[in-house]
Design goal:
By secondary structure, the chain is an all-alpha fold. It has one domain. It is built from four helices and no strands. The termini are far apart. This is Anti-sigma factor.
């Protein structure tokens, strides 16, 4: 019986979180199932884009945190 693989399984595969047997089954299915392979490629692309995103808080958020820290006596001296 062939196991059905989900998007979560593909993510586990990408992050190398699968047992060896399950990993081997997925590799075989990726070779045979073009739709699953396309989903895998799309996920890789998305993860790659997420890995390069740099998120920084806005100045208003930083100022609000500093203000709250000062009011609690927690500011850095």
């Amino acid at each position: 019986m062939t196991k059905s693989f989900t998007t979560n399984d593909l993510i586990r595969y990408i992050y190398q979180e699968m047992e060896e047997e399950e990993n081997d089954q997925l590799v075989q299915l990726l070779q045979d199932d073009q739709q699953l392979m396309q989903e895998y490629i799309d996920l890789l692309s998305t993860i790659e884009k997420l890995d390069i995103v740099l998120i920084e808080p806005s100045d208003s958020i930083i100022n609000a945190i500093k203000k709250k820290a000062r009011s609690k006596g927690l500011e850095k001296v």
